Amino acid sequence: MSARSPLRDGHGRGLRSADARTNAFKETAMDDKGLKRVWWLGLLIDHLRPIRVPLLVVAFGAVLALGVDQVAELLLIVVQAGSPARAFVLLLIACAAAAVAIWYQGRNAFRMHFPRWPSLQDPRGRWLRAWLPRLLGASVPVLVAAGCWVAVGDIESTRNADLSVWRTLALLVLAVLLVLGFVTRRKLFNAVSVRVGLSPLPASPHSERSVSGFAGLARAPKRVLIAVALLNVLLTLLIVWRPTLIDGFGPLAILLFGGAFFCITGGFITLLSDRRGIPVLSLLALLAAGLHAARLNDNHLVRLSESMSTHAVSGLAAGGDRAALPTFEDYRDAWLTERCADAPVCPIVLVSSEGGGIRAAAWTALVLGQLEASGQRKVIDRIFAMSGVSGGSLGIATVAALHQRHPAEGSAGWVHDRAEAFLTRDFLAPTLANTLFVDFTQRLLPGAWFDDRGRALTLSWEKNFATSAGLAEDEVNAFAQPMAALYRRDGRSDTRVPALFLNSTVVQTGERMVQHPFRSLPSHGDWFAARDIAEFPTADLPLGEAVLNSARFSYVSPAGTLVDAAGQPALQLVDGGYFENSGATTLMDIIASLRASAWADRLQLRVLHISNDPLIEPFAPASAIANEFCIQDLTPAGASTVALSGEVTAPVIGLLSTREARGGYARQALSASLGEDDLLWHFRLCPGEYLLPLGWTISTPVVREMQRQLLERYQLTPLADAMLSPLTRDARTDP
After folding, report:
1. In the predicted model, is pLDDT for residue 1 greater than 80?
2. Residues facing 561 on adjacent strands
């Protein structure tokens, strides 16, 4: 037989052709399986489309709970054993409300008939329609619990965190109870309805008839929708009326309640539009973008006086006269005369404080408060000027305001204790509430009608400062009063309070805007790339508003529109850290102005630079009274690898990195500008044993971690003495 002859079976058929048929059959089977997979994928996608609003809420919640340090800190706050039980109960209620809203919206979505998606009536998708809403609803407390465990895992040591495992387990129990409730609710309701004479529900969701629109829904879903919409409007109006009304709810509860309202109201709107093929969410986004582009709903005005709102140019006439304010030179000479007139050598303390949200504010206030206590109430009195950025501005403004009203009989630690009590308050809750309800509504309305979330933040500062500082109702609140009022007493200039320089950034030019309490910036010195707030009618600019202008960071606080004397928009202000986050640039300009005075030969500078980012390296010489090193500073050079970026992300990352590089440059320039009789100390944070997040709320364990580092790494009493004492040749310490 030829080698090329095909093999034959007993019937004379070629064996190879049989193999070919077998292979063809297998390929057909494989094609059928592939088609089935594609069909099931299409079925799943069709079932996800009508519930995209609940899906969006769950996905957004997952990102927040598992990937955002600030939210991790909020989760740790509520699961701490010592935290108020009321906050945790509110969190459980908010979790349940968001879960029920997600489930309820999904159930109503699958009851409606959508001509574009006929697969939603396919019997083979019954289990999807039954279980997708249940699982999505139950995922809310599961995600919160998972976020708690992830946050706990990020803590290197739990010495500073007395965490309650039972609270985390309670969230998981809530998830189980929700699923049981979703599954058994019909049986339970029908068991009760038989006794009270109500109409029973269908035995299962599969037996419910599909409806073609909102009119076809039963009375109960209609009433729920109307009630939720009215409650949403009522809550929005209440927050407009009193932005701090729901402060005690906590940021997490407010986020969850906001998600619940968005699911019900936004979900029903999308259901009605889906039947007609109208992209309502896209249209609303275009409406908001159009109103924003045309500047028809700008409610982010910078308040130029206490009576001015953020949505209307009112109270501008009461903007005050800057000519009545003291000049910087008058303040400088008066300050130096009071403290240095009889001293041949006069030490003068200057402070720069970096940005970093509430972390920067708390660290700054703790450092200055502890130094004041260690120096027996003499350190802050020796501070001539303080330059701050973002959260650092809040820290130095808090210290200045408290120092002004420090009672004569108060203890040396009075400023420290009051500052800690103030800065550990929750400033995030009112900001979130305004963002989710008021500012969100304002974006869809032509015209500016409501105060914005920035005003909610400043109101929270005012309210909590009054409480923490022990102010009576008729006492002056420094955060509500003009910034310049800190420097007046009995109609005369008052030099008890250090001069504040709060740095912001001009959007249109990228320059720094320097806010101060004087008639204008110092006439001596060049003040490179700086705009003077005195160019605008800001003589009565409230202290809280000036701090906000320095802390308008990345959408949490909106860019502020600064108007001119005619009430016309002149420019916009954002966080001072966009220009340079250290505050050292402005401090160098202040030093130049001091050196241009007649007192220059008698001054010895004592500079305190306060940073809060654990990744910042030390730049001041280490000394016996200030340990500048963290553990990670001892890592051998080259031990870590460089994280490379792709060609798309590299330009963006490089652009953002220049912000930190400019701060590093300013710190080094500050160090190089000092003379041999001047001293510089760098107070900085290390990674430590607890999360040190940014944001506008901070927990007690974070403050304890800061206190531990401050007391263990710095010898505060010798530091305070060095700040107050002239440096002689014999006392000078070599780096």
Report:
1. no
2. 301, 572
